[in-house]
Design a protein that fits this description.
alpha+beta, about 375 residues, 2 domains, globular
Length: about 375
């Protein structure tokens, strides 16, 4: 259900009017510009004994449109109550006994994973999650947060509203996923010679900001400063692991360190990338095209987690990306609309590959019984 209102009472009323089964929990995605009072929302739904989880995102997606305000609410059949994990800004991340939980599963189901997208140790959390679950589930999700890149509480469950936290929800559905980014290498690589989780301290043994700004000026003819950093850097992310994984620099601190969404391992070889509208739109079509499943499967949902940087880069042409996904989804099931969120980092497993935290990428997913 898409709710266009950004009034807290109206959103609560619309949710309370839904028909929710006992085995279902509500996945609630909120647009970050809506100013919905999260604590009032949590208290009202708890009073009505409704199970729920969700996040606030830079935008939400319904069909071919993105919205900075409003809500998308989807009831999911769940296998376990949504699990809250705190401390994603620390080294001391503790998970519940997940192996005991999945031992009860009779199939490979989906795990929807939300994180505070500006947490410092998202990679540590996902590594720990994969160590516990490996390929026993298909992972889909993304980073919650606000477009102003100020870290505030942005994920929530029946237990409250949290910052530097994650929510894991096992849903009683199977999932087919695809992801692509469409960005291309345009400059020679640099080495991240000193890093600290999501912070690049040095590139090529010098101040990370100095090196990055020199490359941007020399090869792109642009002057980048602390004030205009995000406006330029969103168009020129870093590519890691032969450009399969992207890291988005979103800010520079007072020491000249680049703050990224997601971790950058020390001594990583980084390429600076550039995109164009055609390559990004084509990548979205390819990602959705990977979601083909058997015609005998009963498709229930078509999901997208698309990096907010893609929408900022494509601007008025962003609807082209969503249209390509819709066309592919409706080739799988007529009238199926893509829904989802603009994220600060995307979470996906793919085939038998490792669980990844992505940037500047679109993840498409078909859920089915």
């Amino acid at each position: 259900m898409f709710i266009s209102s950004c009034d807290t009472d109206s959103v609560v009323a619309a949710i309370l009017d839904m028909d929710i089964r006992d085995d279902q929990s509500l996945f609630i995605m909120l647009g970050g510009e809506g100013k919905i009072d999260l604590q009032v929302l949590v208290d009202a739904l708890n009073k009505s004994a409704i199970s729920f989880w969700g996040g606030v995102f830079p935008g939400i997606i319904h069909g071919e449109q993105k919205y900075e305000k409003g809500a998308i609410v989807i009831p999911f059949p769940i296998l376990e109550k949504p699990l809250l994990v705190r401390g994603l800004d620390t080294e001391d991340i503790r998970l519940p006994n997940l192996k005991k939980i999945i031992a009860k599963f009779d199939q490979k189901y989906a795990a929807i994973v939300l994180v505070d997208g500006l947490s410092r140790n998202i990679d540590g959390f996902l590594n720990l999650l994969y160590d516990n679950l490996a390929n026993s589930v298909n992972y889909f999700g993304g980073g919650a947060g606000f477009l102003n890149l100020q870290q505030d509480p942005c994920v929530f469950t029946n237990r409250g509203v949290f910052q530097s936290a994650a929510v894991i929800t096992f849903v009683k559905l199977k999932c087919r996923l695809g992801f692509r980014h469409g960005w291309k290498r345009v400059m020679r690589p640099v080495i991240a010679t000193k890093t600290d989780k999501n912070k690049i301290i040095e590139l090529n043994w010098r101040s990370a900001f100095d090196v990055y700004s020199e490359i941007i000026k020399r090869d792109l003819g642009k002057i980048i400063t602390k004030e205009n950093f995000f406006d330029i850097a969103k168009n020129n992310p870093f590519g890691m692991l032969k450009d399969t994984i992207i890291r988005s620099p979103v800010a520079v601190d007072n020491n000249g360190c680049l703050i990224c969404v997601g971790g950058v391992p020390e001594n990583s070889v980084l390429d600076i990338l550039k995109g164009d509208a055609a390559s990004l739109v084509n990548a979205a079509a390819e990602a959705a095209g990977e979601c083909q499943i058997s015609s005998r499967a009963r498709v229930t949902h078509g999901f997208i987690a698309s990096c907010v940087s893609r929408a900022l880069f494509l601007e008025e042409e962003y609807h082209r990306e969503l249209r390509e996904v819709k066309v592919k989804f409706q080739g799988i099931k007529p009238h199926l609309l893509p829904v989802g969120m603009l994220t600060l980092g995307e979470i996906s497993s793919h085939g038998r590959e490792y669980l990844e935290f992505l940037n500047n990428t679109i993840v498409a997913g078909i859920m089915y019984e």
